[in-house]
């Protein structure tokens, strides 16, 4: 099944952090040894709550996601490199299996697998770089193909870095109804076949050395989506909310424009204390706006290797979409309506801890590993949804 918006954001986001943190070349800044880096990553995400959109904004939101990933990076020479990652998300969801439970066993699995892979090529010319990316993903009711281009430029003796990227996602989505087949509600047409969705993401960034111990960055994000943006098996309970109330499939616009700006600042107070902080503002034309603040003070431990321990703190608030309502809010005459809690007004807090270890050239850890990272965090959303994520990675260089 298509993972919930929150699960994708939190679960995949946690694993993505590890992917970024364990990218080729040791974080200590030493020249890389060998030409091939291999990293094995594993992420786990668990959530629970009682506002499932699959059953109209009520009922269990319990979900488990296991995500093993293999990442490879190959430096062919000083100017050209290739990288690839392949993985699978094993999803087990009580709410997915509750799509009209009397029928779901015949058509909707309570567990699903998402297979995905990405291939990247990067070429350096003088102080600039160009990159190409292609990828694909597949789930029970969802298939995606992506491609994109990246550009980077270093200026001012590498104290200033500019970057830009464009990504395009072409998705095909099976139109499953709220009964697990094609039913959308009384008087609504039966859905058949599949629908299309396209997403174009543009990201612009600048990073600047602000002092001997301080680095700041600014990132602008713009995303345009068109096609099937509602989830046809998400229910909306029409009012009044009572036993036997009419249920229909959610209806959302077929286009969406998303914008965000992110500011990040890293300051080294000493060789053993580095504070990483960030702020992000998001808005879209569905009426959602969000603010997020995060802090990660990194403490270096005494070791012959580079070892860091850091708490993870994040706080975010979100104004809900114009078309969100709790069960029983809508009459069915509205143009759009949804009871998906991920589109509601919410406040979320995240608390966690992380650990990283990087070796210097000639060193290993436990005899074979060149790098290691582990993270764990809990999430608490004010509508009752709670979540836990953990991830770890081991890296080798050949």
Q: Report the average pLDDT across residues.
A: 88
Count up the domains.
1
- Overall spatial form: globular
Label the structural class.
Answer: mainly beta
CATH superfamily: monomeric porin ompg
Largest sheet: 16 strands, antiparallel, barrel
Number of helices: 2
H-E order = HEEEHEEEEEEEEEEEEEEE
How helical, in percent, are the residues? under 10%
How many strands appear in the DSSP assignment? Answer: 18
CATH topology: Porin
Radius of gyration: 23 Å
Distance between the termini: 38 Å
Strand fraction equals over 45%
Strand order of the largest sheet: 1-2-3-4-5-6-7-8-9-12-13-14-15-16-17-18
Spans where pLDDT lies below 50 across 5 or more residues: 4-31, 99-107
CATH architecture: Beta Barrel
Q: In CATH's first tier, which class applies?
A: Mainly Beta
Spell out the blueprint of helices and strands.
Elements: H1 5-21, E1 36-48, E2 63-75, E3 80-93, H2 101-107, E4 111-125, E5 128-139, E6 142-155, E7 160-174, E8 194-211, E9 214-227, E10 235-237, E11 247-249, E12 255-270, E13 273-284, E14 289-300, E15 306-319, E16 346-358, E17 371-381, E18 386-397
Antiparallel strand pairs: 1-2, 1-18, 2-3, 3-4, 4-5, 5-6, 6-7, 7-8, 8-9, 9-12, 10-11, 12-13, 13-14, 14-15, 15-16, 16-17, 17-18
Report what the structure shows.
By secondary structure, this protein is mainly β. The chain has one domain: Porin (Beta Barrel), CATH 2.40.160. It has two helices and 18 strands. Strands 1-2-3-4-5-6-7-8-9-12-13-14-15-16-17-18 form a 16-stranded antiparallel barrel. It has a two-stranded antiparallel sheet with strand order 10-11. A hairpin with a 5-residue loop joins β14 and β15 (306-319). The chain is globular, with a radius of gyration of 23 Å. The chain starts with a helix and ends with a strand. Mean pLDDT is 88; it is low at 4-31 and 99-107.
